[in-house]
Amino acid sequence: MAEETHNSVSGQADLVVQAGRIGELHQHIHTTAAAEHPVPYQLPPELAHFENRHAEQECIRCAVDERPGRAGPLTVVLTGIAGIGKTALGFHVARGLADRYSDGVLSLDLDDLRRDGAVDVADAVGGLLTGLHVRPEWLERSLAGRTRQLWTRTRDKRLIVVIDNARFGSEVLPLLPASPHSLVIVTSQGPLYDLDGTAAVEIAVPPLAADDAVRMLAAIVDDPRLTAEPDAAAALVQGCGGLPAALTVAGQWVRKYRRKSLSRLVVELTGELHRKGIPMVEAVWDASYAGLGPEAARLYRLLPLYPAPLVEPEPVAALLGLDLDGALDALAELESAGLLEGRDEGFRMHDLVRGHAERRARQDTDATDATSAPGAVGATRDPLAARTALVRWFRRQAARADLLAAGPRMTLAAPPAPAGPLDGPDVDFAGKAAALRWLDDHRAALYGCVRLAFASGLDEDAWALCEPLWTHFLDHPHYADVIDAFRTGVAAADRSEHLGARIRMRCQLARPLWEQGRYAEADEQVRRAVAASEHLGTDAGDRRLRASALEFGGLLAAEAGDWPGAVAGFEASRAIHAAIGNAYGVLLQTYLLGKAALGSGDAEAAVRLLSEAHEAAREQHRERLSARAGFELGRALRLAGRTEEAEPLMTAALAAARRRGSGTDEKRILDELSALMKDLGRMREAGEYGAAARNLAEQAGALPADGGT
Question: Which DSSP state fits 425?
Answer without folding.
Answer: P
